[in-house]
Design brief:
The complex is a heterodimer of chains A (about 290) and B (about 300). Chain A has two domains: about 60 residues, no CATH class; about 220 residues, MetI-like (MetI-like fold, Orthogonal Bundle). By secondary structure, chain A is mostly helical. In chain B, a hairpin with an 8-residue loop joins β1 and β2. A two-stranded antiparallel sheet of chain B has the order 1-2. Chain B is mostly helical and about 300 residues long. Chain B has 13 helices and two strands, in the order αββαααααααααααα. The longest helix of chain B has about 50 residues. Chain B has two domains: about 50 residues; about 240 residues, MetI-like (MetI-like fold, Orthogonal Bundle). In chain B, α3 crosses α8 and α12 packs antiparallel against α13. Classes of the chains: A mainly alpha (about 290), B mainly alpha (about 300). Chains A and B meet through α1, α3, α4, α5 and α12 of A and α1, α4, α5, α6 and α7 of B.
Chain lengths: ~290, ~300
Amino acid sequence: MALITDNEMRMKKNKIVYVFIIAVLVIGIPIQVFPFVWLISSSLKGAKDIFELPPRLIPKTFFFQNYAEVLNTLPLHRYFLNTFLVAILTILIQCTISTLAAFSLSKIRPKGGRLILLFFLGTMMIPEQALLIPTYLTLRRFPLTGWNFINTVWGVVLPWSAWAWPIFLLKGFFDGLPAELFDAAKIDGASNMRILRSIIVPLSKPIIAIVILQTFLAVYQQFVFPLIMMPDSRLWTITVAIYNMQHSGNFGWHLIMVLLVYATIPMLLVFIFAQKYLVQGIKLTGLKA
Amino acid sequence: MMRVKNKSETKRHDTGRTVQHSLELWNNIQGWLFLLPAVIAFAMFKYYPIFQGMFVSFFRFSVAKPPGQFIGFQNYLRLFKDAELKTAVINTLEFTGISFVCGFWGPILLAILVNEVRHTKTFFRTAYFLPAISPGIGMLVLWKYIWQPDYGLANYILSLVGLPPQLWLNDVKLVKWVIFFPSLLIWGGFNYLIYLAAVQDIPQELFESASIDGAGIMQKLRHILLPGISPIVRIMVILQIIGAMQIFDQPYIMTGGGPAGASETVALYAFKTAYTGQDFGYAMSVLVCLFIVLVILSYIQLRLQKEE
């Protein structure tokens, strides 16, 4: 693993190298951490103090009321509600669709399955931007039915139902499950649906957790799709609200920083409570992407 | 191999085959039923839109009466004469270059260094991952504030070191680097974890036996560690290029493409053409070209992966 083996660590020269490595890493940390310190510090400054020169790291007076002011002036609960509604619907629909598809490709293996896998994976090359405009046109007037999904949650949720990445992740995991499990259940007369529900899914909890987590993070952070598909201010998600508040110009930087702190909280919680899955998920991205 | 002896056995054998056959058919039908929702979703929200987009790119789009008037390849011919698009293409390539120069080495180096740490690995892992735990849009807005020329933190830090203040986001020369900086931190935090996983996958015995043979740190780095992670590095390079070619959020939020088009990218230009200019047909012709370039890059990536 490490370049310097334990034996070599006993040599003085290598100890110096090791100390040097730690020093470099420690020096790098402020660059990563400081923006957050600055974010919190700015969110606690007054409307005038924010323009003060030279800027202070620790505010002259702490304006904790900024946090209340944002809550009072903005329907923050609605932004969060919209965001979570989109996230939950997306996760439900997408996880179901992906699990069914991955199970079929991995264990039932119908004729033409390989082709369908390519049909799914091929879409990963399509840039998001190239899809944005035609998806908008499609959702504004849905083929055959003529439904208009613009300014509905579905305008953002439905496009997510076709995401090849979770199918790929799930299929990879299902492939690794021993075939005997599946065959034994099959001989016992269990239907595919039953096998999926009572054998595959319980065994696949870790990977499903990773899929849910990655979907949540992607949906929570998405910006252009909700901006275009749900322009109505009652439907704004938290990222769209941040953008619009910042862009409107009549919202002070200190209040925008408060908004950013609020927006970070859910992700921070996810990071704290699901760090294991988060890190595993990122590693999978590297090993398979 | 069963040898068929008489008529009745042949018959039984046939029934067996039919049963086998219908079982297989039933299996196929079930398999397809499980696939059906996904197939519909992909057809509806990936393939239909992208083909519709290609279709629209041959039209002078009319919002009132879509798709409007068919004009053949005129949108595509227009691409070559469009000076603004040319700037956007050059900018996008420059962004790709920056992403390569700055975003590429950092995470690898970081992964190698963190891998050496013996006791507080989790601490460093968490610290360097930090920029990725705030919504990306939020980080961009935060940095927009930090880069403000009059009261921003960046100029204050420069003044502490005794350097003249800069215009940052309003500086034609600096803007690309400045816009990209926060993303480097965010992506860096992600990519470095990927590299770290790759470094940790290299068997420790290789290093041990190399050091018994008298190999120094640099030799081990060059002959064991770097070759060990090179497959993943190659893939990441292509992925990074693909990501950089699509840059949109950064200029859209921080500059809107300014100053004087210095941070306008292809994706941003297409977006503006579509939603400000209502010229969906032309915007799609830009994006179809971008799409083709990305497909070629993805193909290269797949080839690299196959080689692995």
